[in-house]
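User: My advisor, Dr. K., asked me to get a structural model of this assembly before our group meeting. I'm new to this, so sorry if the format is off. These are the inputs:
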Amino acid sequence: MTVMRYQKALATAVRDEMAADPSVCYLGEDVVHSLRGVSSGLAAAHPGRVKDTPISEAAFTGFATGAAMAGMRPIVEYQIPTLLYVAFDQIVNQAQKIRLMTGGQTRVPVTYLFPGSGARLGLAGQHSDHPYTLLAHMGVKTLVPATPQDAYSLVRSAIRDDDPVAVFLPANCLPRKGDVDVAVTVPIGPAAIRREGTDVTVVAIGHLVHEALAVADDLADQVDVEVIDARAAHPFDWHTLTRSVTRTGRLVVLDDTNRTCGWAAEVAATAAEELFHHLRAPVRRVARADVPMPFAPVLERAVVPDREAITAAILETAKA
Amino acid sequence: MDTTELIRAYQTMRTIRLFEETVVTLVNANEIPGVTHEYIGQEAVATGMCAALGPDDVLTSTHRGHGHIIGRGADPGRMFAELMARVDGLNHGRGGSMHAADVSLGIYGANGIVGAGAPFAAGAAWASGAPGAAGEPTTDRRVRRVSVAFFGDGAINQGVLLETFNLAAAWELPMVFCCENNGYAVTTPAAASAKVTPSERATGFGLAVREVDGMDVEAVYEAAQWAVDHARSGRGPVFLDCRCYRFVGHNTGEHMLGLQYRTHDEIELWRGRDPITAVADRLRGHGLADADLARLDDEVQQHIDAAVTFARASASPEPATAMDYMYATPTLTTATRWGHR
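Assistant: The format is fine. Below is the predicted structure of the whole assembly, which you can bring to the meeting.
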């Protein structure tokens, strides 16, 4: 067990998988010199398995698909999370569908890494999205690790998985420090209860898990909040959520994507369908405003979920 | 081509042609759902190209993919079954015409998005020479895998294909870009969409380029052999500009629309260069009698008849299996909710 920054845990996971499995390769823009800090030293350690790609997101995403079908286990790094939009056809219409479309003839074990996802004060309209909802909607296994341990263990699980897996690494998590035990395995699927409580269930993902925990501590003398870290936007762990809401009867969902048709909308709708008779208050969402990210930091703060909005939602839900 | 090779090419081309004519019949009889795009007229390209491939080579196909798949040796019975949405189809009825694949033959699939399969071919070509590649990784350039990306001239303006040209050239990948230049992107003539020819554009990317008479299977085969050898021996990717023509509409139902984007005279001119008739004439030159050709035709007919019988006898998939094959590594919760869970 060592204390590690989240960013370092992520890089260590990639390093350890590349050392363990010679079919793992690493593709992306400026990865040889590790502009993003995930692939430091990999090119020297594994010549031929780390490729700087042209700025051609669609082509290198499809390239990874073909390499995966031919037996490799590629990791694709997107320098900016919104480059997902440029590569969208190759992920959701190609890689993700090929297994079903071929009737199970092939597998496509590709890991898509989106380091630095979400708003970071001042990156403005085209570099501030946190687009995990889009991939979850299309059925892609989509992970958003919140802790250094999960950054390490979930990324290793993603690389070892035989399907396409997208991993969004929130910008607000990258500098976080925490204990990492490299022997710990975290499978894709189960959520984690980060704080036990009896009054309100808060389900969050990525950096909002930490915001939820901070708010829960602040409110400790008023409301006993249970915080669930979903870990995966898809597949979502309905079992853990059901057990929690059955006890608390109250649910708040935190989501750093647009409110309309966002990930929180799916969680809230399913809770309303499945858990209606256990609910003692309306389900509440705290999500992004439906707006392109404005540049001014004061405006950015106004449209992303913050502690004030989370606090208000928890208190309203607790009183309702 | 020697006589044996030419006979084999004739059989393959006849099989593709009869397969496609049968597809039209089955579509019109509502035995094939969805949309199909026939390869009629272009048989020499797939046949000549596939004849030059080795057993470990890979190809990616297009929406007009039946010719590539049969040309590569897939079973017409399982191919019909796929088009007819049956469990014994190549893809167990999950793909249909536009996604048919036989990965065991290196066919990484037809594709419903123009140009989108080409980067798969690039990745597979790279994987064969990459350290740690599964299968039989090798640095021996004489034996490594070659990938062929088939696409039409319409794809020449698609970003992902042009990106793949560049990436393949920059990385000197062992692959062949096989452009089936039939002159039309659905209804739009090539000259209306691009200032330069496909060959001119490919040259600019640094690909080795050859223009080929795509109506002549021997010309395609000769060019394909050169291209595959060029790629396999480590001299980098090749672009083959195969001039050809589709004798029928963009898809099976197009004739219902009465579109006038090609003249009757133009179609008849190209039909006069039917690649299968041309091979039959050459086989006569090799000493085959009309009765020999008739016998070959009968064999193809029997083969196709048996294939249709096989496909018709195959069951439809059970509705409860609609989610099957979605994930290679299912988890507790990827047993995905379906409707109301």
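One thing worth pointing out at the meeting: Chain A touches chain B through 63 residues (CB under 8 Å).

User: Perfect, thanks a lot.
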